[in-house]
């Protein structure tokens, strides 16, 4: 019975390493992002700087090695007045930071880039296995329905992901008046206006409007490519996909310019100690959308290469269809972001 021919339309997937390996890659990518933005160890200079006369003296001690640093610490009355346990901790923190700052310090991109490349490798390998299954005929009509349900549920989960950011933004925006009832004067004063006083918002009809037009145009070109493929016009399908990928890259480039403008222009309170709840919600929502645009662009680029390699036919092209669904989801989310986060509270 174990060697009997298969008598059903379902595909029983072979054991695959990619779910576990991909989880590891994403974990490394997340750790790399934390290191790049925050860091796990302090700059060695920041650990000892307070025990030297000035920054130049601390840098000179660092250049001289551990013996020079130790001599400077021993000569500092503030360090000597510390509890012996705190002295030992300071020395241990300095040695740890000196040893690992190159890899785990804030702004270091090594683990982030490594995790990103590892993730791309897992994506290519996993998708490659799925393509091989399709070429072997494992994707029967019943399996195709399951793939479609899976993609629909995935997009639904992504919708709920963005609902969380919209919920946060609207909760603090629409119910700001409730916080003015606080018995803490500073809190009540801070919530008298929304956006909070001192927060300068971006002009929605400049770069954001340009990005909106770019993304809407990309939605039309991906639809054009899809219909061209359904009609067997491979040349038009390739052209439409090429334009869509270029527009996706253009959107990302414009968003980078927008972020640079926001950071250098000290929008959202960047001139102070904290960006505040308005800026935090803005960057979380638009930043995650930008990440989805990058993912969608990669998705479409892979479909372009597959189309050029002859993998898709007018009747069998769910990989491209799924990419088009995902891209339309990205389009719709951006329209909500533009309308409610850029325009409504501008």
A few lines on this structure:
The protein is mainly alpha-helical and 346 residues long.
Verbal overview:
By secondary structure, this protein is an all-alpha fold. The chain folds into two domains: 44-104, no CATH class; 140-343, Cytochrome c oxidase, subunit III, four-helix bundle (Four Helix Bundle (Hemerythrin (Met), subunit A), Up-down Bundle), CATH 1.20.120. Helices cover 73% and strands 0% of the residues. It has helices at 18-37, 44-48, 55-63, 66-74, 77-80, 84-104, 110-135, 141-174, 176-179, 185-190, 207-230, 234-264, 276-308, 318-343. Mean pLDDT is 89; it is low at 271-275.
> Rg, please?
27 Å
Number of helices: 14
The CATH class of the largest domain: Mainly Alpha
The succession of helices and strands, N to C, reads HHHHHHHHHHHHHH
Helix content: over 70%
β-strand percent reads under 5%
- Topology-level CATH name of the largest domain: Four Helix Bundle (Hemerythrin (Met), subunit A)
Instruction: Supply the number of structural domains.
Output: 2
What's the count of strands? 0
| Fourth-tier CATH superfamily name of the largest domain | Cytochrome c oxidase, subunit III, four-helix bundle
**What sort of overall outline do the alpha carbons produce when their principal axes are compared?**
globular
Overall mean pLDDT: 89
What is the rounded distance between the termini? 69 Å
**Low-confidence stretches at least 5 residues in length (pLDDT < 50)?**
271-275
- Structural category is mainly alpha
CATH architecture of the largest domain: Up-down Bundle
Multimeric organization? single chain
């Amino acid at each position: 019975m174990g060697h009997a021919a298969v008598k059903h339309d379902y595909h029983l997937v072979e054991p695959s390493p990619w779910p576990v390996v991909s989880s590891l890659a994403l974990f490394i990518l997340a750790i790399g992002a934390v290191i790049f933005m925050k860091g796990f160890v302090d700059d060695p200079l920041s650990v000892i700087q307070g025990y030297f006369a000035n920054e130049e003296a601390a840098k000179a001690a660092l250049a001289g090695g551990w013996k020079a640093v130790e001599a400077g610490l021993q000569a500092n009355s503030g360090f000597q007045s510390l509890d012996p346990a705190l002295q030992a901790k300071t020395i241990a923190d300095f040695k740890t930071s000196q040893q690992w700052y190159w890899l785990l310090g804030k702004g270091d991109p090594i683990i982030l880039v490594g995790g990103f490349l590892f993730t791309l490798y897992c994506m290519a390998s996993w998708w490659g296995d799925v393509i091989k299954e399709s070429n072997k005929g494992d994707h029967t009509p019943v399996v195709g329905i399951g793939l479609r349900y899976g993609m629909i549920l995935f997009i639904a989960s992504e919708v709920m992901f963005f609902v969380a950011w919209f919920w946060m933004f609207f909760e603090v925006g629409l119910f700001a008046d409730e916080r003015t009832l606080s018995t803490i004067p500073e809190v009540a004063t801070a919530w008298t206006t929304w956006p909070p006083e001192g927060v300068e918002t971006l002009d929605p009809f400049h770069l954001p409007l340009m990005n909106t037009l770019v993304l809407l145009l990309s939605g039309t070109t991906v639809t054009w490519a899809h219909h061209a493929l359904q009609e067997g016009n491979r040349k038009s399908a390739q052209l439409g996909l090429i334009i869509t990928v270029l527009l996706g890259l253009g959107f990302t480039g414009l968003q980078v310019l927008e972020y640079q403008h926001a950071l250098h222009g000290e929008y959202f309170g960047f001139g102070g100690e904290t960006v505040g709840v308005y800026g935090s919600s803005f960057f979380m929502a638009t930043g995650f959308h930008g990440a989805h645009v990058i993912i969608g662009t990669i998705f479409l680029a892979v479909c372009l290469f597959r189309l050029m390699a002859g993998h898709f036919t007018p009747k069998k092209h769910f990989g491209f269809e799924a990419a088009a669904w995902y891209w339309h989801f990205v389009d719709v989310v951006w329209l909500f972001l533009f309308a409610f986060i850029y325009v409504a509270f501008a």
